[in-house]
Amino acid sequence: MNTCTSFTPSSALIERVMARRGRLHPFEHLVPKRTALVVVDMQNGFVKEGAGHAWVPAAASTCPAIERTAQALRALGGQVVWVLNTFTPESLESWSHFHQELSSPHWLALRSSTMVPGSEGHALYADLHPAPGDLHIPKTRYSAFIQGSSDLHETLQQRGIDTVLVAGTVTHVCCESTARDAMMLNYRTVMLSDGCSAFTEQEHTLSLSNFMFNFGDVQSCDQAADNLRQSAAKLGS
């Protein structure tokens, strides 16, 4: 098992979570038609070696689990969203501190050339297979939900979505940022442990542990898919 994508909550975390809310998983009842799988930044620039500015070696290993979850949700009438990290001249101005002070000239040049629409780095990784009806939404910040980043929130609200499953890369950066803001916007939010990937096991585990205690739920991809099917069966749909 790739340790940069696996997650087992510690006994101490379980104890704290149970003391806080009385149950480990608050969102086991997932209504498919009100649920969106939001897959963050699974693009060549992050998943394929040499295609961009921030290759995550563990990212490719999450594709089968992401695919299974997407197929299960589509079959039950839910929404799949592919969020695409995108460099734009506008974001260079409106997010200037990140681009000018937190990025070296070399790193910025690499990111700006490989994360523009039409480039190899911007394209979705080949092991992932979007279907008709899936959404493709560009974002210009770490979080897809923060103001100025994308129209994801408005798009999901129009579709009656109140539950978000977050997968993608990197766990502790764009995935966690997106998941945190989803919770702040009142979505029932679940991070998919084996659908997310990080550079190290420690970064992955700390991110999911923090999210599980403070912000929402953490489930495996198969656990979430089973919960979707069970909820659909109870609803008779």
Tell me what you see in this structure:
By secondary structure, the protein is of the alpha/beta class. The chain has a single domain, classed as Isochorismatase-like (Rossmann fold, 3-Layer(aba) Sandwich), CATH 3.40.50. The protein is built from 10 helices and 6 strands; from the N terminus they run αβααβαααβαβαβαβα. It has a 6-stranded parallel sheet, with helices on both faces. β4, α8 (171-184) and β5 form a beta-alpha-beta unit. The chain is globular, with a radius of gyration of 17 Å. The termini are far apart. The model has no long low-confidence stretch (mean pLDDT 95).
What structural class results from the helix and strand content? alpha/beta
CATH architecture: 3-Layer(aba) Sandwich
Q: State the distance separating the first and last CA atoms.
A: 35 Å
List unreliable stretches of 5+ residues.
Answer: none
How is the main sheet built? 6 strands, parallel
Overall pLDDT score: 95
User: Over the alpha carbons, how many angstroms does the gyration radius reach?
Assistant: 17 Å
What's the structural domain tally?
Answer: 1
CATH superfamily: Isochorismatase-like
Shape from CA axes? Answer: globular
Strand content: 15-25%
